[in-house]
Amino acid sequence: MSFLQRLENADRRWVFLLMGLAVAVPIIYIGLTGKTLPEKATPLAESAFKVLDDLPSGSRILLAWDFDPASEGELGPMATSFIRQCSQKGHRMYFIALWPVGAQMIRSTTTKVIGGYYPDLEYGRDWVDLGFKAGNEAVIKTIATDFRQMFPADARGTSVASIPMMEGIASLADFDAIVNVSAGYPGSKEWVLYAATPLKKPLVVGCTGVQAPLMYPYVPVQVRGLLGAIKGAAEYESVVNDWVRADRIRLALVEGGMSETEAATIARELAADPKDAGAWTESAAAASLTPASKADILALAEDPTPGIFLEAQRRMGPQLVAHLLMIGLIVMGNVVFFASRRRGGGR
Amino acid sequence: MKRTVPLIITATVGVVLIVSNFIPDFRAWGEEATTFFSIIAAIAFVLGGGSLLKVHLRKISDRNAGWGYSIVVLGTFFATLAVGLLKIGVTPNPAFPDMPWAGDVQAQGTAFWWAYEYTFKPLTSTMFAMLAFYIASAAFRAFRAKNFEAMLLLGTAFIILLGRTFAGYFLTSWIPIDGPFSGLRIEELSVYIMQVFNTAGNRAIIIGIALGIASTSLKILMGLDRSYLGGGN
After folding, report:
1. The domain containing residue A140 runs over which residues?
2. FRET label pair with A61: which of A17, A74, A293, A294, CA 20 to 30 Å apart?
3. What are phi and psi of A91, to 5 degrees?
4. What's the CATH number where A86 sits?
5. Distance CA A21, CA A318 (A)
6. How many domains does chain B have?
């Protein structure tokens, strides 16, 4: 039996084994070394970031987590990055879910990001978990005109009347932007149809790979930013990570006595190339800073990004190898097919 | 009666929703109708539970193939229902310490949380992850360049598969990013395919679907299409 015939009759468990290795080896390698592949953000990821960045601190952002553990691998990292950007920017976050287990997704992402890295944010003042509500798009249609009819209490059972940040929230019109992370129905399409379009609200969508092609027609008017699957998440994550680093350096520079404009420019440069921070703190431009400020800036520039904010970029490794394997399998399958057809045995 | 009442309800609510969308004075009516929908959606969860019981109890009683799995389904259904309704392992809400039932059923450490964290979450994640293996197997056995259309599809798939990874950037990084041929870089091609070809095709489909939904909705509202009532009519 020739090699091609053997391939044609190969047990499909060999393919399963190859796919298992294609995913497992990069996961182990990245886990051991901590190395990630570089990401260049596309305009869609940049505009997703810009929608939230252009809003002044304290803006009201509605975050709808319409996904479940099955799609957490694709959507979890972008959800954490959205929370990170909003938390760092000082936006007020209102979490809701149209999927029954979306409530658990809210809980796990807020616990990881707010609980772990922004403990100063106060529940009820800076963020609130309003939990799951049944009714799919009818929920969106109702809260478009009357928010409290659907959400009279938060997920913990506290009346929204006694939650300070709910003051002034009567309908969806009172929010400055909507962020939706969606794995299907009800999800991003429903938010486009019943919220973003009639209310003309900026909507940022993060969705699974199979949903993304269906959302492109709504870009850039109804959907202002679109993150498709783990690739979109990795691009957005890298933009947010760089911005968070720059923002922290900027705050340290301002605290050290530098003007806002100058601090912002220098912070951006140092965040883009943290290796230059050491040389910069020794330069004449940093002469006005105290040694303590310089040490702070150096630490902030070189501070490694926490693992949970690198999840999307880490997952791009297994995706790369798995995609290459898929291409290899398709090519190999076609070689076998045409060789078999030439022999007169084609299907 | 069984068919006339649902037809009247559908037609009335449908007309109210359409009118409320175009005439602001009737907006409140539309909101009322939407509230009813939300109530029905919540009740549907109970009906869903009832339907689950009916199907699986019948399967067990008839000893149909796989009836053992039905026992597992019903067992886990009742176990989850019990730990949720009886709030097993829930600690009282600090704001209301005298009311043991005021605690959060989904809080970490509760029996409901355990069921979610250690049963539901790993099972659903595993189910979804298994797709990768079946897609790989299908790619090897079914994705054939048998004709021109299939070759176009294959070529597009390769560009998208590569463009969604670092390989796309790496393979064509020799093309200057600010040169006249930058559009031929795989990552740029991938974005172009998604934003132009995909968007054009999808917009056409979306418009077609919308027109189809509008005409089907009209038929339902006028009582011409009664297939949603069941009974094969």
Report:
1. 43-239
2. A74
3. -75, 155
4. 3.40.50
5. 9
6. 3
Tell me: do A197 and A93 sit in the same domain. Answer: yes
Residue A65: C-alpha distances to residues A57, A272, A333, B35 (Å) = 22, 31, 39, 22
**C-beta separation of A157 from B104 below 8 A:** yes
DSSP class of residue A41 equals -
User: Containing H/E element for A66?
Assistant: strand A60-66
**Alpha helices per DSSP H over B66-198:** 67-85, 111-115, 121-129, 131-142, 148-163, 166-171, 186-192
- Domain count along chain A: 3
| DSSP alpha helix (H) spans, B193-228 | 199-221
DSSP secondary structure string, A264-306? HHHHHHHHH-GGGHHHHHHSGGGTTS-HHHHHHHHHHHHPPPP
Closest CA to B114 of A104, A94, A157: A104
B76 has a chain A CB within 8 A of its CB: no
Mean pLDDT of A151-172: 92
Indicate if A172 and A74 belong to the same structural domain: yes
Which one of A194, A320, A332, A336 would you mutate to disrupt binding with B, by most B Cβ within 10 Å of its Cβ?
A320
Q: B12: domain range?
A: 1-82
The predicted complex's ipTM stands at 0.84
| Closest to B102 (Cα-Cα) out of B114, B119, B90, B89 | B90
C-beta of residue A181 within 8 angstroms of C-beta of residue A98: no
Q: Residue A204's beta-bridge partner residues?
A: A179, A225
Asked if residue A220 has a cis previous peptide bond (ω within 30° of 0), the answer is yes
User: Does residue B175 sit within a domain?
Assistant: yes
- In this predicted structure, the answer to whether residue A314 has a pLDDT above a threshold of 80 is yes
Reported as type and span, the H/E element at residue B50 is helix B27-62
Interstrand relation of A225-228 and A203-207 (parallel, antiparallel or unpaired)? parallel
Residue B232 confidence (pLDDT): 55
Hey, what are A9's tokens? 């009759």
Q: Which chain B positions have a beta carbon within 8 Å of A323's beta carbon?
A: 161-162, 164-165, 167
The rounded distance, in Å, linking the Cα atoms of A60 and A128 is: 11
Instruction: Please answer whether residues A147 and A170 qualify as being in contact, where contact means their C-beta atoms are separated by less than 8 angstroms.
Output: yes
Q: Which tokens sit at B4?
A: 């006339």
pTM of the model: 0.89
Decide if pLDDT at B2 tops 90: no
- CB contact residues (below 8 A), chain B span 208-227, against chain A: none
On whether both B170 and B222 belong to a single domain, the answer is: yes
Final residue of a structural domain among B70, B98, B129:
B129
Task: Kindly state whether residues A143 and A51 are assigned to the same domain.
Answer: yes
**Residue of chain A whose alpha carbon sits nearest to that of B112:** A104
- Pick the residue of A110, A123, A330 with the most B CBs within 10 A to test the interface with B by mutation: A330
Q: pLDDT, tens digit, for every residue of A183-208? A: 999 999 999 999 999 999 999 999 99
Shared domain check, B124 and B70:
no
In the block, tokens 């959507």 appear at A75
pLDDT(A345) > 70 = no
CB A181 within 8 A of CB A207: yes
Task: Please state, rounded to an integer, the average pLDDT across all residues of chain A.
Answer: 91
Task: Give chain A's end-to-end CA distance (angstroms, integer).
Answer: 19
